[in-house]
Amino acid sequence: MPWTMVPTRSSQRRRRSGVAGAITLVTVLGVLTGAPGTVAAAPTDGTAAQPVVTRAALDPGLVAGRGARVDFLEQEAENARTDGQLIGPDRTAYTLPSEASGRRAVRLTPGRWVEFVLPSPANAITVRYSIPDAPNGGGITAPLDVAANGKRIRTMTLTSQYSWLYNQYPFTNDPHADLLHPDWWITECSCVPAHTTPYPTITKPFRPSHFYEEQRLLLGRTYRAGDRIRLTVPVGSNAAWTVIDLLDSELVGPPRVRLAAANVLAFGADPTGRRDSAPALERAIAVARRTGLPVYLPPGTYQVNRHIIVDDVTIEGAGNWHTILKGREVALPAPAPDGSVHTGVGFYGRDAADGGSRNVHLSGFAVEGDVRERIDTDQVNAIGGAMSDSTIDGLYLHHTKVGIWFDGPMRNVRVTDTIIVDQIADALNFHTGVTDSLVANTFVRNTGDDGLAMWSETVANARNTFTRNTVQSPVLANGIAIYGGTDNTVSHNLIADPVREGSAIQVGARFGAQPFTGHLWITGNTTVRAGTYELNWKIGLGAIWLYALDRSIDARVEVVGDAYLDNTYNAVMLVSEWAVKDLYSINDVHFRDIRVDGTGTSVVSARTAGSASFANVDARNVGAVGVNNCGSFHFTPAGSEFRLTDLGGNDGGWLAPWMLPNTITCDDRPPVVPPPPPSRW
Questions:
Q1: Rounded to an integer, what distance in angstroms lies between the CA atom of residue 642 and that of residue 663?
Q2: Backbone angles phi, psi at 105, to 5 degrees
């Protein structure tokens, strides 16, 4: 049964030949117009609803000690009062519910509303929403009224200009585009269209995705706990529907003031955003480097339309709600040496080949980009280059290609307390020889590729840690991905709702990465509603997915203390590519003190040669056989090529003695039994 997925990745480029099946825009909208089983009326009784605060659409008690500590409180629209309609749950790619937090949301037509009760005092909100694309792509804008306690206070202007992508990787904004790669195999016809006679009919728009967007709003005053915030689509709105996914509410503090600093206003910066402030910012940086002062960006919006090169400098804003650097994406007159055809707002260290930058400290501001399409050669990231001995703290990064893409070799960078949302590609990537570095307490939502990644291309990453971060709703690929490297750690993160072609956590020998060596520690993480359906392989993935494509994985992998909740398919998957299944294996993997609450299929699915041990792995609500052991599909009389070792304490009956050490229990595509919602253990 040949099943192949051979994507490649180089210089921020990832080709994906196996993308999940198509669903037309008509079908997407069908989900929103009352399709049986997907839409239901939400509660509209006149009593004041009690606020339901969640984290990743879960009871916060289920994720205590996991994920980022943030200043806002999350409320899912499906738990609020509304006269609209609920959509979902649905985990099928290319549908609006599948990309919603918790896989449910509320659909409003003009005149309809959804109302949230504030759980704590707040003077600011973030609304995550979707509105339709323009008929020919490119997006529309539409109003949304915001009222407090029955009195309208603001009208937000929503946009779909940064959402709605179509077609094959690297995607297009054109819903009418023909296949971008007719020579790629696609599941819709189970064929390679360019090599098929007659040429298959491909429904357009092909594979719509990346539906959601979020917008922040200062309310102008502080409202109390128990006050009501109502979002209403005005009658006459040009948006046929508006989907509200969630509302985050927050009490934003006053602007931070820095007196002893190189204030950009003194160098001609324009806080109204009307004039280009890049030259003034560069003058302030030059003075700050000579004097040893920090650069200070007071409250305001500053227009910056190109990279600001930073080295040995501290740049501070008044807080990421107060200081905003906003820029247009600008076409270059000729491609840059690195292949970029655009530039845009961003702070870049010097290239590692030129020695990189050091002692860069960026804090307390927002970067609002203007990236609406994925061009892999473009350097249009919010933060880039190489920055050793540096810190990134308290930023809000929005609408860039990648929030933070570091190209090493470089060492000792710390990214903390940062929010990265609505990216075309990754949120953050440690690429090529990044060592002794940290990403902590960072919140990620709605990326177009991996949320947080370490990619050891050419030079291995080493001794890095991703800890106490939250990653929600990566539209493509994984929540956290580790591609090769030495002695790295992924700990105490919360990862929710990957949509397609990925898992919550991936350990991947792929994309030309250097081998895994030493240890890889994956400890104390919680995943929920993870493990997507890989239509190219036609199998369900796991919440954690170990993948040997380019080479074997034989470093020691320790997975300790994780919780895998409400798994769409498997909790754990270990797999080799069919074409290399007799060349590569996955060995020396150890699972200990794990809790699995709900699997659509199995606790462990092994589709490779190799071995793993299990101790104190408790499982309940298992949909199929506990272990789906296919090995490398030779089905030898000696049993599977994958061996399991029972180290004791594995409760729930999922690891029965008769399965050990390598009984073949291969059901290639077992029926899926949707698990019940997770609950406290």
A1: 9
A2: -160, -175
| Cα→Cα distances 319→88, 220, 292, 419, 450, Å | 36, 16, 22, 12, 27
CA angle 364, 425, 319 (to 5 degrees): 10
Q: Which amino acid is at 285?
A: I
Q: How far apart are CA 228 and CA 118, in angstroms?
A: 6
Q: Are 134 and 164 in contact (CB under 8 A)?
A: no
Q: Residue 112 gets which letter from DSSP?
A: -
Which residue in the block uniquely carries the two structure tokens 């070799």?
Answer: 409
- Which residues lie closer than 8 Å to 515 by C-beta, 6 or more apart? 460, 484, 509, 551, 555
In this structure, what are the phi and psi dihedrals at residue 567, rounded to the nearest 5 degrees? -75, 130
Q: d(Cα 209, Cα 133) in Å, to the nearest integer?
A: 11
* H-helix segments, 524-578: none
Report the half-sphere exposure of 308 (CA within 13 A, side-chain side): 31
Cβ within 8 Å of residue 599, ≥6 positions away: 564, 567, 569, 570, 571, 619, 621, 622, 623, 624, 675
Residues 362 and 357: their CA atoms lie apart, in Å, by 13
* Burial of 658 per CB tally in 10 Å (0-12, 13-18, 19+): exposed
Task: Give me the pLDDT at residue 49, please.
Answer: 73
* Tokens coding 328: 């247009």
Q: Can you give 121-135 as a three-state secondary structure string?
A: CEEEEEEEEECCCCC
> CA 662 to CA 631: how far, in whole Å?
9
Low-confidence ranges of the chain (pLDDT < 50): 1-42, 45-47
User: Within 13 A of 133's CA, how many CA atoms are on the CB side?
Assistant: 26
Specify whether the CB–CB gap between 538 and 572 falls below 8 A.
Answer: no
Radius of gyration of the CA atoms of the chain, in A: 24
- State percent of the chain over pLDDT 70: 93
| E strands, 503-562, in order | 505-509, 516-523, 526-528, 533-534, 539-540, 542-548, 556-560
Residue length of the chain: 681
Per DSSP bridges, beta strands 113-117 and 122-130 are unpaired
Nearest to 358 by CA among 382, 387, 332: 387
Per DSSP, the three-state class of 419 is strand
Q: Report residue 606: phi and psi, to 5°.
A: -115, 120
Burial of 353 (0-12, 13-18, 19+ CB in 10 A): exposed
Report the C-alpha gap between 105 and 271 in whole angstroms: 37
Which residues, at least 6 apart from 115, have a Cβ–Cβ distance to it below 8 Å?
49, 80, 81, 82, 228, 229, 230, 231
Q: State residue 12 phi and psi, 5-degree precision.
A: 65, 25
The pairing of strands 563-567 and 526-528 is: parallel
Q: Euclidean distance between the first and final Cα of the chain, in Å?
A: 39
Q: Are 208 and 174 in contact (CB under 8 A)?
A: no
pLDDT at 179: 97
Distance from C-alpha of 61 to C-alpha of 51, rounded to nearest angstrom: 16
SS3 at position 519: strand
Question: Can you tell me the distance from the alpha carbon of 629 to that of 199, in angstroms, rounded to the nearest whole number?
Answer: 38
Tokens matching residue 390? 């540096």
CB-based burial label for 638 (10 Å; 0-12, 13-18, 19+): exposed
Q: What is the pTM of this model?
A: 0.94
Q: Which two three-digit tokens encode residue 556?
A: 């020691």
Taking the C-alpha atoms of 434, 437, 443 and 447 in order, what is their torsion angle to the nearest 10 degrees? 10
